[in-house]
Predict the structure.
Amino acid sequence: EAGVVQSPRYKIIEKKQPVAFWCNPISGHNTLYWYRQNLGQGPELLIRYENEEAVDDSQLPKDRFSAERLKGVDSTLKIQPAELGDSAVYLCASSPGSHNEQFFGPGTRLTVL
Amino acid sequence: GNSVTQMEGPVTLSEEAFLTINCTYTATGYPSLFWYVQYPGEGLQLLLKATKADDKGSNKGFEATYRKETTSFHLEKGSVQVSDSAVYFCALSVSQAGTALIFGKGTTLSVSS
């Protein structure tokens, strides 16, 4: 069974540019999470989806971050415009339901110059 | 609020040494507790979990016991191997606060032969 797929694995951009990350969860997993992991820190939740509905986006900086999960499968996380402080690893995770084990993708490492 | 504190690394051990990585937590309600491991170049993987007080999670020779009285979930292994070199994250989830995981900062383990 394929795991959570994320792309790109690495992205380098200049500040003020837009960037987007894509996540394909494990087939059949209804719950999808985006986390951000700063260097030397543990991951922190940005947004959680139950199917196509964002049920917890309280930690998402909505002035520059947006996310969508069309048709309740793949998800895209966007930053526009990016700032230097956005440099981090962006992790996607999925689970069969909101109280089940979360399976993580390899992450996208973003560097903002 | 809900938080996790784990011992800072790096932890450097020789093969077959005993491992302890300390983890304590603060939580409202009754959390579930987890240890995740991140091998170099890979995504986070669930190592073990415990969902109620006095439960012991175990996997691959690793163990951790949910201690409510000391709010701790220390990770132990009797004899580490070089292949155990990785970053270990302690985490909790509290259903009253949604199902997102709250992570500690991670502890890097390096095992030499």
Summary: Residues 15 and 81 of chain B are 5 Å apart (CA to CA).
